[in-house]
Amino acid sequence: xxxxxQSDGAEEQASGTATLTKDAAPxxxxxxxxxxxxHFPVRKGLLQRQVGAVRAVDGIDFEVRSGETLGVxxxxxxxxxxxxxxxxxxxxxxxxxxxxxxxxxxxxxxxGMRPLRRDVQMIFQDPYSSLNPRHTxxxxxxxxxxxxxxxxxxxxxxxxxxxxxVVGLNPEHYNRYPHEFSGGQRQxxxxxxxxxxxPKLVVADEPVSxxxxxxxxxxxxxxxxxxxxxxxTYVIIAHDLSVVRHVSDRIAVMYLGKIVELADxxxxxxxxxxxxxxxxxxxxxxxxxxxxxxxxxxxxLQGDVxxxxxxxxxxxxxxxxxxxxxxxxxxxxxLKELRPGQRVACxxxxxxxxxxxxxxxxxxxxxxxxxxxxxxxxAESAATSAAVAAxxxxxxxxxxxxxxxxxxxxxxxxxxVxxxxxxxxxxxxxxxESxxxxxxxxxxxxxxxxxxxxxxxxxxxxxxxxxxGEGSESAGSAESGADGGDDAxxxxxxxxxx
Length: 498
What we know:
The chain has 19 helices and 12 strands. By secondary structure, the chain is an alpha/beta fold. The N and C termini lie far apart (109 Å).
């Protein structure tokens, strides 16, 4: 796709209060976020007193360099969209700082942020509600020029039509209304509006979540082409891990208002360190027909995400983690760099040495969560967690128990044969003694026992072919006792017959 070059008249003829800053060189820090928080108060009662707060974003730190794409992933309700609105200053932060090109913009007012709106733009999640249904497309896309007092070369209409062609729309759609377009076309209109003033940073909040798969590919490829052509910097918020992997240079994983892992694309997908990241990666479907009948190794997390009004103490993921120990419940792990370019907040990280090897006892919730985890995953986790290794050692796998039972079956069978035969001999002796109360019965019993022993030796080679010793002797005595008990009633007939 070829993208027409944008005119330089927008920068040369800037007027009003808009000020232009020097472009950051590729690789330099463009956006820096430190300890960013946003708490929404919860009020109740007649006087609307605050009774709590929803901690949507609760202390996050990251940097975005010029020319790169940072992907942000996580479950619904983890604070991704709120974070995007905070760094674009559409929401006022509760605490923390946001620096853009070295300038603190955390608490700038409307007049102070107006010049920076040229450099920071946002693509909203819902293409249906982000466009005013009463305005035409020409009015919507041309609004940034009028608000900033910028007169493009050739006029606003010509520039808007050029932007529409850049995003793959017909310039003749200038006078149409939003309801005349499909969802993918509306999202393209939102992209054209965001790119109107040549911003340096674009925050895309779920840019393809409401689109069809074919339209998703078109929009993603469009964002890539625009980044290469215009040198844009993206912060892309998405649920689709495949899309994030395709467009991102680095990826931040959020959980309950916190960043739990921040790493480059290859490291994160090849060897995730945080258990939550590993669970997310296991949910990505692999389009391979040969794996149709393969056993799924997906990690199913127990329960739902806790309420952001009362997040768990310590590590916020310990209520659903299969590696959680006591330190996870009491101490919050810091986000620190364990490998070059890979930062993780976990006491027992995956694919790395244990940061708290002294804790060897799993919590009860961890044992319950481990029941939903595949044995292969537990075996990998045991390599980096002493607690999981101890738990796996106490409860062997079914395959191991089957093999051990198969190997010990012969030894146990010989012992069981000896014990059962000795028990049978004891029982038969008691039964013979009880049945042979008279002296003739006792005499016939002793006679028959010797005869039955001989007949047992001749008729049952299995008993005689067994291992010599106590087992064979007890087997012979058991058979003799049984014959003696049966012959006690017919003891007077058998000698006469013989």
